[in-house]
Known about the structure:
The structure holds two protein chains of two kinds. In chain A, about 45% of the residues lie in helices and about 15% in strands. Chain A has twelve helices and twelve strands. In chain A, a hairpin with a 2-residue loop joins β9 and β10 (about 270). In chain A, α8 (about 275-300) runs antiparallel to α9. Chain A starts with 6 loop residues before the first helix and ends with a helix. The relative contact order of chain B is 0.11. By secondary structure, chain B is α+β, with helices and mostly antiparallel strands. In chain B, the strands form three sheets. A four-stranded mixed β-sheet of chain B has the order 1-4-5-8, with helices on one face. In chain B, strands 2-3-7-6 form a four-stranded antiparallel β-sheet, with no helix packed on it. In chain B, α4 packs antiparallel against α8, α7 (about 225-260) packs parallel to α9 (about 305-330) and α9 runs antiparallel to α10 (about 340-355). The chains are: A alpha+beta, B alpha+beta.
Amino acid sequence: MDLNYAPEDLAFRQSVRQWFQANTPKVEPKTLAERKAWHRTMYDAGYVGMLWPKEYGGRAATPMQQAIVQDEMARAEAPPAINGLGIGFIGPTIIVHGTEPQKQRYLQKMLTAEEIWCQLYSEPNAGSDLAGLKTRAEDAGDHFVVNGQKIWTSSGPIADWGILLARTDPKVAKHKGISCFLFNMRQPGVEVRPLKQITGSSLFSEVFMTNARAEKSDLIGTLNGGWGIAQTTLGYERGANSLGRVTRYLMGFHHLVKSVKDLKRDGRALIDDPVVRAKLGKLYAELEVQRYAALRVLSALSKGEPISAASSITKLSYTEFEKRFYETGLEILGPWGQLMPGSPDDVTEEVSTSSGEPGTFATAFLWARAGTIYSGSSEIQKNVIGERVLGLPKEVRADRMKG
Amino acid sequence: MDFAFTSDQQLLKSSARAFLDEHCKPAAVRLLWDDPRGESEAMWKEMAQLGWLGLALPEAYGGSDLGMVETALLLEELGRASYPGPYLPTMLVATAVNRVGNDAQKNRWLPAVSAGGARAAVALLDGELSWSAESIATRAEKSGTGWKLYGTKPFVAWAHVADVILVPARGAEGTTLFLVDPAAAGIKQTPVTGMDLATRWVNLALDGVPVGLDAVLGGLGKGQGVLETILRMGAVGAAAEMLGAARRCLDMAVEYAKVREQFGQPIGSFQAIRHKCADMLLEVENSHAAVYYAAWALDANADDADLAASVAKAYVGDAARKVCGEAIQVHGGIGFTWEYDLHLYFKRAKALEVQYGDADYHRELITRRVTA
């Protein structure tokens, strides 16, 4: 057991820190073009797609190096890269399961964010029970014809491509008739309707597919083998971003402390209120524990150990913590904590939210509700932990009894 | 960056588990509940032979020269067994003697501790139940070439079996640590019964207890820094024990949920139970990270060692209470009985919550540090 950073990691961190000090934009990029430009700047510096193999435009970096970059980005409060779903999940899926022509066609443009990707998984009646999805892909000879509806599609409004799960055999058990496609979002049969979220922004959407087209060459893996692919996609490592995520909370904590020193209640600074001090101490203890746990995951990743089912513990832990973090922050700040962006600067503290969108404590508080729902809700994570980590018996489910 | 245990550390852990499974079964712990001393001389000697008592002491004094990570590994196993005895206070006092004691003190106490011939207690609290070293009210009054000690020291763990008690007291020079003979004149010991019968507390009344210059540990007026070190190590050690208690309760709950049937199914197949167990595992794994980060930070003399000790004590105290309590809930009625063993660990975790600084105290230390 040795939790010191290796000398080469310290040197790498130093160079990354200097780069972000010099290059972080002074004005938050707003338009898609501006965000793509910032993404490209980071890519050219070698800070995007770091774990990808070099042959597909990546850096073949170590998980520790990637974690350091994420950590320094958070420390600099730099705007995030875009295409996170593509680079974090979809690209690695193509690398593992895709054909060589698929890799050549899609990977480089995904990394550089020339093409933005989304994930076409959830449907109105297939959320946690994803395998119950109804979207059909029917073989039409030289291509598949796709009909159906997807929902909660993040980045849908800006996406050029999506990874699609669709039913290709309705006659077999639900997990066995699903295929996975790379799917063109820019075609006549696809309509994207943005959904406004509780934060007021519209980063996710509904997607309607009416006689849309999926090419045979864009099938990933085998026909009807899509569920296995979706499982690996859902299970991809959650570890390497964890350090940066904790540092983002830490920056938020510092903003909170600054406000608590400025604000007064009952004739004294909030920082002198013992109740507030107790809350801050509890929050910081939890935050540090998140950091220690992140280091533990990173240590396992660095040694190439599989963390598959244990990543459910990480996801459950940080998303539930994030809710408590901003809930407590808002308790402490009182009405000041509820200010949305656009209020006068001298009364609001900007923090970065879990979406990467800048905002106030109020926006971060609202965003925190998403974390325990997306990528497998907390309840689904607890089922996974119960069955696969603790070895508890499977529940009796109506669909399992049928299938 | 390596958060995993070395093979030597794993060996220590598994051999400790094997020894305690054999020699510190719940039945053995229960027998000692009714024993006036509350601990087993035979087990103490065996622990010495296994090298546990001198684990972190120098080889010159019969020790193994290992660190806080190994000590925490052992304490986790001791907590898992609800081990009754003065391991943690003895380790803390021996560490203090090793760090700041003179040769005579080291020669007197360290070989004896390593060999299982001496036990120690540390009187951290006094009358006002404050954990901060600045608030010590016990007085050291000059008397001839030495001092006389006056004050009240409540909740001193295992003082009744100790061969030496470390007593901090305030005198003209500031806070000084004294190595006090429990048999000295003027000491009145009153045992108090807490809920954990395998943790023994004694209230000490000091009424003119004579101590000489040879009892001064680490120099006149130099007590505060040493006390803070003891409190930090004690906090991490207690957190490790609480982690062990929590993991034992989790294991018992999971095993029970696999075999106990209601409505024709094992109760572990119900999400109400399974989700509870998943939450418990989350707390246990986070506690593991907190304990071993803090232990490593002490060994490495890391900048954030103080902070990490407070984080571990505050976090694991809450987590262990929750996990052990939920294990009782998973078991239902049987978990609430005296005969079932869950309460051994539930109570051990609870007893440690109030020692070496409670969560409120450590949270204030954290806030002070991170808002400065």
